[in-house]
Structure prediction request, 467 residues.
Amino acid sequence: MSAWLKSVLSKVLSSVEYEAWVRFLVAIVGLALALAAAVLSTVASESGNVLATGILASAALLLAAVVGLTTVPYLARRVVVAGMRDAFDFDVTREGVAYIVLTLVIGVAALNTGNNLLFLVVAAMLAAVLVGGVSSALVLRGLLLEVNIPAHVFAGTAVSARLVLRNLRRLLPALSVSVVPPRQKKTGKRWGTRHTVFVFPSEKTGRKPWVRWPDIWFERKDQAAPGEAIFRERVYFPYIAPGDAGRADLELRFDRRGRYVQNSFGLATRFPFSFLVKTRRVPLNREIVVYPPVEPTDELFEVLPMITGEFESYVRGRGYDLYRIREYGPEDSARHVDWKSTAKSGSLKVREFTREDERKLRIVFDNPAPGVVSQAAYENAVALAASLGWHFADEHTELSFAAAGYDGGHDVYQFLAYLALVKECEGTSVLETLDVTDDYNVVLTARQRGSIPSRLWQSSYFVFIDK
Prediction:
């Protein structure tokens, strides 16, 4: 196949997979040739040419076999996989169970009595079940789900998310559709697919392969335990007009920090008779990282004034932000005298400022090894580190962070993302490799006081993690 024809076909078939259509066209051509060979073999047989009849019949069988071995299984698997991506789940409701039982009772009565009217009633009831299944399938087709989640989510804090369900059909409305969380998968072995290469003849025979085609193989795989889902509630849309969209805002709250993943959603409906709940699985991946809580706690209120005082004492000097008004000293300049305070107090007062270029604060999280502190104490330390970073991010301070394995720079959200996923781990303490700079350090550590490097004491405030 020439490059020009291949490019044209790829553009024409851009909405589907190119190779599947190529195999389909090859199969059509192969079957057409097999049919032509079979017809010609019949003609040759009627004319008495035994040799031509045998050759044409063998060619027809060979072409049909090649198509059957190389193309038909591949296309069949493609159809099965496509159906699995957009599969429907059926759940019979209580009303449906009652209706089916009543239908069976009337059916048995019709068989026993031979009454034609009862047969008509049973046929109408079974037709209602069929109509309900087809109608619900039509309602769920042509719907596009959009999920909008905030970029920054904190544990313990409610956030608002939005679901948008679009009806792409031009004529049919969407009636009584609900967006539901996916079913929780059980652990164990499940059927899955993997990409392979179809080889004929097989390489085990030792002969040179004639055909090599990309293929899909079904096999049983170990199913990992499902993670925590993002959405756990049902959102109901009673009516969506053709070409319109329904929107719903819902509140999300996560109790713990970490990563939350949801790989699919469900579109469910009971329309029109509520005999069945039909659910269409929609493959839609969403992942969020929930930061540790940053709400003020008693521990934060205890350490924050001391950290702020030590930090301001470390950086005080001449600059632009007023630090305090104090008594005049021999080394002070007369241009910093505060005449209003001097007049009120009767003694000479001067203004003292903090230096803008020295307001540098570094938050250091010294991640302890497993078992050093309790899990509750560890989570409190992570939350305290996140709260301190969040507080000083708005204090006109040049903020930086340091932790084992952290390389996110000065962005507070990157540090919060690190704390959201951090776990206790073995390794060298970050205090051993921490450089002494002009930054003032706020260190959260579980180490003993005697094991802390002496070079850090003068420019650091230590918060010791309770064990």
In short: The chain has a mean pLDDT of 78. Residues 18-47 form the longest helix (30 residues). DSSP finds ten helices and 18 strands in the chain.
